[in-house]
Amino acid sequence: MWKNYFKIALRNLLKHKFHTGINLIGLSIALGVGILVFFFVQFEMSFDSFHPESDKIYRIQSHEKVDGEMIESFSSPMIVESTFREEFPQIEKITGYITAGVQAKLPDESKENQSFSLVHPDFLEMFGFELIQGDISQQLRDKYEIVITEATAEKYFGSENPVGKSISLKMGEDFQEYQVSGLLKDIPANSSIQFEILMPIANMDFFSDPEGMTSWYSVWGQNIAKLRNPEDVNVIHERMDAVMKSALGEDYAPGEFYFTFHPIAGMHFSESQGDGGLETTRKSLLWILSGIAFLVLLIACINFTTMAIGRATTRAKEVGVRKTMGANYFQLTFQFLTEAFLITLVSAIVGVILAELLLPTFNTLFEKQLDLNYGLAQIAILIGLVLLITALAGAYPAFYLSSMRPIRVLKGSLSIRFGKQNLRKGLVGFQFFISFLLIAATLIMVNQMNTIRNYDLGFDTDQVLVIDIPDVPSTSFVTSLKGSFQQADTYQKALAARSEVASAGITVGTYGDQAFWEVAFPLEDGTQFNFYVNFIGGDYLDALGLEIVDGRALNPQIGADSSAFLINEAFAEAFNWEDPTQELLPNTRFAPHQIVGVVKDFHHASLYQPIEPILFAKTPEAVFSGISNLMIRSNTNPRVLVKASSSDFDSFKAALEQEWNRVFPGESFEFTFLDESVESQYRADERLGKMVFIASCIAILIASMGLLAMVALSIAGRTKEIGIRKVLGASGWSISWMFGKEYLLITLAGLLISLPLSMYLMQSWIAQFAIKAWPSWISFTLLGLGGIGFTLLIVYLQSFRATQVNPVKTLKDE
Amino acid sequence: MIQLKEIDKYIESRFQRIFLLKGIHLEIKEGEFLTLMGPSGAGKSTLLNILGLLDEEYEGDYFFGEKNIRSMKERERSSLHKSEFGYIFQAYHLIDELTVYENIETPLLYRKVSSSERKSIIAELLDRFNMVAKKDLFPAQLSGGQQQLVGIARAIAGRPRVLLADEPTGNLHSAQAKEIMEVFQELHREGTTIIQATHARENADYGSRLINLLDGKIESDEKI
């Protein structure tokens, strides 16, 4: 029986190569996409689950009320570690986790930035990172012993055994020797915690004075704890208040400073502001991707269904014969499902190959290193998927065909109507709807991203390089800032003297996510005035092409300008100042200062944000004297902005490098392009746009193949009618139009539902931008006309052939 | 073996009932070779479909042996259908995607006949109809007469007691028709009950009983 089912299924599929081909192509592409998305989602969901007992590991989040506002962050004071270890017996192990970077000497004596993480000795025993050399209980105890990963070992020692060897790191002023005591297997790609070197936390004394490590108000990195029992987290949260009360003493105020525990399982999908720097994935991306994969699969399934019903007339006879020979409903259903299964199975195999071929493109698009590893579970799920699609695509036609009455289809000519017109039209309409939905979304996204890319930010990004100045390590923040600013000044002056350089300026905040520092001071009415601050030097305004609309720029020659400020227009507007250069900041805590000029508004941050008040100053003291709140989201090193004087990039770069080596001997010269950094802010959305674009291409491809087959079938089912109409004098055009009309209506319906819906759905996406750009109604109209034209073209091409056939032929055989 | 009592079959149209069969009384004994004749629309095929359990929408009673078909459960009816009836069609209705061999095999598959038994039954049938050399051909590669032979082989493969044939020679020329009717005659001699519907008077001569239908009623019933 089975053999018979397979045999007839195979022969049927081979006989109708056109339909089989369309189903095969559609399902293969859809399954290929589905497989990729499945592995991607699985990979993303697997993050941080490889640690043994990962459900017991929690990250500690701080909640602190600052100026009436609750600030939440996964950075917490280092004193949390010792306090909580003592106060909460529920905590089995706890470690701080601070990431830092310093210069390291490579074997060839060259220097390179080396990042490392400072942790407590509990770290390795808490997590599932695999120690391949060294005794786990002896690691991270001696201040000058470190644990490195294989990749790091390779970098410093090649293939030699690293254990017992040393790495030279510049801690503070001098280089220190660190002996490798343990070797870790490389960190899995699905780990949120990524590091190259683990270093005992005792080394924090190079970065912080002892008070910094014991203060509740100084934050360096994260704290991560492993509980004895996952349920204990509630006990901890309940006791938190009491613990904080005894820890903070008289600084304690209920609900103003406390900590909560969050399982690391959710870490990869964290959307918390306090998780800056962590490589996370928006969970909505997984939903969008899964949704798209589902829609594409659905379109391919609908193709199968509509074609199978469309061919009902040809299959009906077989059903009748088999029924009279004793086949029952279930046997027939099974037979048709076998056909669906066979084609899905072949498609799955092609899909697996397609997924493998598409993987590199996918990885580039999403900047991932995804591997397709088929384990038992994956194969089982794949088989499940094949069965599901078999059911989804094949069930309805199988039931429909199997329930045909033999007496109707066997008696003489086959007089049943071309099967289930309305249902099929509905399904095709649904395909149109999905396709148009995706196309309209693509149109909206492309339009928005183009607007963003070409938007006049108010400053020049062309031919501007950004060079990070090495920091001057100090345990005092202001000293460090001023020290490195001094260095930047030296370098900037050297550059300004070169003919290759048009202008050079210094800036602390650069262009990336919220790179200017956020500050605030209280106004008289008690509310906070929030604004941004940036410390600048050299020809900052010239290098960026910024305009002064009132007053003058900061002048390095004028000594008093060290307490002078520039503001932007938005700042002046915030206080309704008519003549800003005559005003002072409205808070008496500020040291003597003067506002010397107003800069024309420009987009200092990404276009996700509106233009906000900005204050520019040369030195930090005057600003810091009055502010009550400071939030820094980027690193604090100043950068030098350099604009080239000609388009000869090589000599420009050579000049920069030459001066660099003179001013900073031994430091490596690195730079970025300003326009690239500005554009990189939109990478996530550019990527999403590309993805939706690809998805809509696939959807259109599969849906239009289905349309093609559907039109061909409906014409084949009406050849006799075409013949009669021709005999009665109908022209080829009028017959084509007869078919076109039917599909025109479906297309219109699909369009009319999908366009408003896509606008509705995209609203929340566009809302994130400060600059919003909806495509004009002309674009939407063109899109609609394009869709209609495309449909009619397919119908016309198909029906044209049918109208060319001599009616004598079609009418004779009956 | 078969008894029809007061069989009515009609279609409701908007204004009236159109009777396809009216008041059919018929008794068929095992081993008879019955021919139904009559002009188009007389109700031959309708009656044949009712006899063959392909049509259940009628009024009146139908006894097969001792059992009333109407009071049977769907399952019983379907197994009766499977075990007792074989069907032959005017348009042959072979399955185009199956070879001669596989077409004959299909009813055996639905009857769950074992593989070795299937082989021997089909071999015997192929031999009987001289089609051994053609067993791997597809229907489209055969002449009409040959296709109908396959149709017959397929119909009798399951060893039914009743063979129903609706215009079995309607699409054939006379020489082929003659061959088919001779096969029927032989099957009749072996004891199979055959009921055929036909236009051609000469076909009736191969049978043992002739019923003339007109406008859904039995016009005449005679032994030959």
Question: In summary, what is this structure?
Answer:
The complex is a heterodimer of chains A (814) and B (224). With 814 residues, chain A is an alpha+beta fold. Helix content of chain A is 50%, strand content 18%.
What's the structural blueprint in terms of helices and strands?
The complex is a heterodimer of chains A (814) and B (224).
Chain A lengths: L1 H14 L1 H29 L11 E10 L2 E5 L2 E2 L1 H9 L3 E15 L5 E9 L3 H4 L4 E3 L11 E5 H8 L8 E6 L2 E11 L12 E4 L9 H5 L4 E9 L4 H17 L8 E7 L19 H28 L1 H13 L4 H38 L9 H27 L3 H5 L10 H33 L10 E5 L8 H20 L4 E7 L9 E6 L5 E11 L1 H5 L3 E4 L12 E5 H6 L19 E6 L14 E4 L2 H7 L2 E3 L7 E6 L4 H15 L7 E3 H7 L2 H34 L2 H9 L4 H36 L9 H28 L2 H6 L2
Parallel strand pairs in A: 5-10, 7-9, 16-20, 18-19
Antiparallel strand pairs in A: 1-2, 1-11, 1-12, 3-11, 4-5, 4-8, 4-11, 6-9, 7-10, 8-9, 13-22, 13-23, 14-16, 14-22, 15-16, 15-21, 17-19, 18-20
Helix pairs in contact in A: 1-10, 2-8, 2-10, 2-20, 8-11, 8-13, 8-20, 10-11, 13-20, 13-22, 13-23, 14-18, 20-23, 22-23
Chain B lengths: L1 E11 L4 E12 L4 E5 L6 H8 L7 E6 L2 E2 L5 H11 E4 L11 H11 L4 H14 L15 H14 L4 E5 L7 H16 L3 E6 L2 H4 L4 E6 L2 E7 L1
Parallel strand pairs in B: 3-8, 3-9, 6-7, 7-8
Antiparallel strand pairs in B: 1-2, 1-4, 4-5, 9-10
Question: Could you describe the largest sheet of chain B, including whether it forms a barrel?
Answer: 6 strands, mixed
Number of domains of chain A: 3
Find the CATH superfamily of chain B.
P-loop containing nucleotide triphosphate hydrolases
Category by helix and strand content of chain B: alpha/beta
Q: Which pair of chains has the greatest number of interface residues, and how are they split between the two chains?
A: A-B, 23 and 27 residues
Query: What gyration radius of chain A follows from the Cα positions, in whole Å?
Result: 34 Å
SS element count, helices of chain B: 7
Q: What is the multimeric organization of the chains shown?
A: heterodimer
Count of individual beta strands of chain B: 10
Counting structural domains of chain B, the number is 1
Overall morphology of chain B = globular
Helical content band of chain B: 25-40%
Low-pLDDT sequence parts of chain B: none
Shape of chain A: globular
Rg of chain B, nearest Å: 18 Å
Helix content of chain A: 40-55%
Largest sheet of chain A: 11 strands, mixed
